Task: structure prediction
Amino acid sequence: MMTEEIKIIGVVGAGQMGSGIALLAAARGIDVWLRDTDPNALARSRKYNFVADSYFSRKGSCHLQVIGMHFMNPPPIMRLVEIVRGADTSDASFSATKSLAERFGKTVICSQDYPGFIVNRILMPMINEAFYTLYTGVASKDIDTGMKLGTNHPMGPLELADFIGLDVCLSIMKILHGGLGDGRYAPCPLLVQYVDAGRFGRKRGIGVYNYHKAVKETSLSGRL
Result:
């Protein structure tokens, strides 16, 4: 299977990730079938990237062609794609997928089929620890300032969590915790409280920060 043979792709879920991937493909001359008829489809599509590819391999007859492409958010801007091989993914499928990602202008990294892959295995526990730092009263607004100026991150972990969506962060932490069976990945209670209260981040106008105000609220608290 050669990359030039890929002329049509299907994207299930027309949310931020799905629509971004569709835009990437269409801009490079690939016909796109974008479908989202289920009101819960967006929530499911957010979780797709974190379901083990081996699960899908067991469900169909095309197990040699099962492979994961994990785009970063937002897909048209972020330059990275993680490729995750299933247990039986063929070399031809891997090569075609890698070539397609490069056709999208992405740098490719490869991960084994484990929860979180590479980026989220490292990133989400860091975000979770930032919530614990806020929750236990170690610091508040200095958490983001410290990480931006001390480690040269473009966004602090709490700002980034709001951008990603606190509900998405919580979902990933639950998958890491369940999939790896390690208490280190238990979601911070404060993150759980924020999500339960509907404080999902930028998309809701309030998360760790309050975006309804003219100037972003920086008076953070370890309690709701």
